[in-house]
Amino acid sequence: MFGQAQGLPYNLSRPLVYMNMGLLGAQYRGPKNQYVAINYHAYGGVAHGTFDDDLRPGQPGQPTFSQVTGLYTNRTKPIAAIGGSIDINRSKNWAIRLSPDLILEHFGTETREFFAISGGVVYRMGKR
Fold it and tell me: 123: which strand partners?
C-alpha cells in the first residue's frame, strides 16, 4: 500500500524522523491566587535530529536521502524553549496546566522559530 512510488528513480520510502533534546534552564513563579498560577521559563541546550532512520544504504553513485528530499542531514544543533505555563486550580491539590512555548532551533542555515503547546494534569503533594 505504501511501497515505492511509481516513476521515482530512487528507492526511498517512509523514513523514520525524530529529534531528542536535552535542555537546562530556569523557571520563575509569577503571580498566583486561589484560581490560577503563572510560571515563566527559559531553557537552552542541544537537540540531535535523525532524519533518515530505517533507510538502507544507497547504491554507489546514488544521491543521499537529504539531497533528494531536502531534509536535513543527521546532526546535533543548539535549541531553546522560551515560554510559560498557566495552572488552572481545580482544588487544593489538582490543577490543569497549559504550557505554550516559543521553540528556537538552528538545524539548517538559519534560526527557525515555531510555536508549541502542551497540557496536562498536576497533582500537588504535601501541606503547601
Answer: 94
pLDDT in tens, 16-60: 788 899 999 999 999 999 999 999 999 999 999 988 776 666 556
Residue 117, H or E segment:
strand 112-123
CA geometry: angle 53, 54, 55, nearest 5 deg: 95
Contacts for 91-100: CB closer than 8 Å, 24+ residues apart: 92/124, 93/123, 93/124, 93/125, 94/121, 94/122, 94/123, 94/124, 95/37, 95/121, 95/122, 95/124, 96/120, 96/121, 96/122, 97/121, 97/122
Q: Cα separation of 105 and 111, whole Å?
A: 6
